[in-house]
Amino acid sequence: MDEAVYKIVELAGSSKTDIEAAIQNALSRASKTIRNIRWFQAMEIRGYMENDRIDYWQVTIKVGFKTEDNHTEKKEIPPVEIKQNQKPQENKGASRYRCKVCGYIYDPEKGDPSQDIKPGTSFEDLPDSWKCPECGVGKDQFEKVS
Ligand code: FE
User: Fold this and answer.
1) CA 43–ligand 1 middle distance (angstroms)
2) How far apart are CA 84 and CA 76, in angstroms?
3) Per residue in 50-98, pLDDT tens?
C-alpha cells in the first residue's frame, strides 16, 4: 500500500566519542529542519588523529525522508483577488528561489497553494513561518535562481 517516494540528502556528523554518536549527531541536527526522516545509510567513516590518538570520528550518512503527500496532489489554484483601488502586484522579474536541501523551487508566479500563498507573492514577501513544502526547511535554506 505504501508506495512512498523518498528524497535523499547527504550529511556528515562528528563525535569525539564514537561512530554511533557521530551518526546520532548528524540525525539530530537534520531532524530540526527535515520532517519525516525514515532511514539513513552510513557511507563513509573517517577518523581524525591528534598526538597519535583518535581525536574525533566523522561519519557521512545519507538520510531518506518522505515527501509530503499533500504537495503531490493537484490542487486548484485559487484565483487572485484584486480589489478595486489596489494596484495589481508587480511581480514581473520576481525571482525564483531554490531549496538548498531538497531542490524544490519556489515560483512567485505560482505561489504555494499548500500554505495558502497566493500566486504573485514574491519570495521576500513570504511570511517567516513559511516552510519548504517538500522538506520543511525555513526560508534561510533557499537561494536565488533567477
Ligand atoms: Fe526543501
Assistant:
1) 22
2) 24
3) 999 999 999 999 999 887 665 544 555 566 655 555 555 554 558 999 9
pLDDT tens profile 2-53:
677 888 899 999 999 999 999 999 999 998 888 888 899 999 999 999 999 9
5: cell is 517516494
**Grid cell at residue 65:** 525522508
> Residue 119: CA atoms inside 13 Å, Cβ hemisphere, count?
10
The answer to whether residues 7 and 68 touch, using CB atoms and an 8 Å cutoff, is: no
- The letter for the amino acid at 67 is T
Q: What is the CA radius of gyration of the chain?
A: 20
> Which DSSP symbol is given to 27?
H
CA distance 8 to 64: 5
Distance (Å, rounded) from C-alpha 58 to C-alpha 44? 8
Can you tell me which residue has the cell 550529511? 11
Ion ligand 1, residues whose Cβ is below 5 A away: 99, 101-102, 104, 132, 134-135
33 Cα–ligand 1 center, Å: 9
Quote the ligand 1 centre to 106 CA distance (angstroms).
10
